Amino acid sequence: MTKRVIIAVLLAAILHGCLNNAKSGSSSSGQADKTTQAERLERTYHSIRTVGVGKEVSPQWIKSDSLYAHASVAELIRLASKHEDDIERLIAFRALMMKDPHEAANLTISEVDDITLVCTSDGFCGQAKSVSDIRISMMLGNRVRSKVTIEDSIRIDSAVLNSVNSSKLNYTYKLYQKLPAKPEYEDRLRQLYKQDKRALMALAKYHKEQDKQEIIRILSKIEHDRVGAYHDTIRIVFEALINYNTRWSYNVIDQALSTMKKKNKNYFSYCWDFHLALEQNPHPLYKPLLKKYPLHEYK
Q: What is the pLDDT of residues 140-160, one digit of tens each?
């Protein structure tokens, strides 16, 4: 056998080995992907019953339904509170909520400061949420379905308002939107505002001059910001102004939108947030501004 033939044979053998390894690697990779996907599915809390294209029932919901059928309330409280795995605690909590909403409310309140982050999915996208936010969402997202009483709902709201982690909870935003301007809440809201600017939405309902000045100060700061890094703040300010529901607040919104439109600076962002804020908290006073500053004008 010539040297050239020997080299050719060796190259063929090497190539054959590489191809086999590639196939094996591809198979292993495919298996690894499936394993990773299954683990991801298992380590995600699903807020809807079915998942994936095939609309298969979430493994978490299957476990939760089984616990609801077979575990006692005492066992569910223990699992929902003491289990070392965060997802398992949420699975048990859902079963507890179905079996005894009042006890689920008690647990939600007693552990309202649990801001441990877990992966969640609503069927469209995934995100990280705190254990406390997920529990509150299950309890108050649909009170008719969860059978939470008005009294327990108020207790949960109070716990969130007074939580040391109130500013870190997503639900607090909704709480600020619906919280009435009662005197007993004002001191706590002013305390919260130092660390959570969303509290301005609730403070505006008191119609205090100091909050008017704060709104003007923030608007001025936003208007002079070159990067436009205050998008979330714009929405907060508009919601605060809408809660004033006076000719003063009407004029401030009108002036802000008019200024941004003339400067062509962040106008769409302003306009979008105003429309969204008014949609969430409708007030007839501001309807003329919807026509004056329509969203389609930006196109």
A: 998 888 999 999 999 999 999
What's the N-to-C CA distance of the chain in angstroms?
Answer: 76
Q: Alpha-carbon distance 181 to 213, whole Å?
A: 19
How many degrees, rounded to 5, is the angle at CA 174 between CA 168 and CA 179? Answer: 110
Q: Quick one: residue 244, left, alpha or beta (phi over 0 = left, psi -120 to 50 = alpha)?
A: alpha
Residue appearing with tokens 């406390």 = 132
In the sheet that holds 117-121, the strands lie side by side as 44-46, 117-121, 126-130
Amino acid at 153: S
Mean pLDDT of 103-111: 98
Instruction: List, for residues 94-105, the tens digit of each pLDDT value.
Output: 999 999 999 999
Residues 6+ apart with CB under 8 A from 132: 108, 111, 112, 113, 114, 115, 163, 165, 169, 171
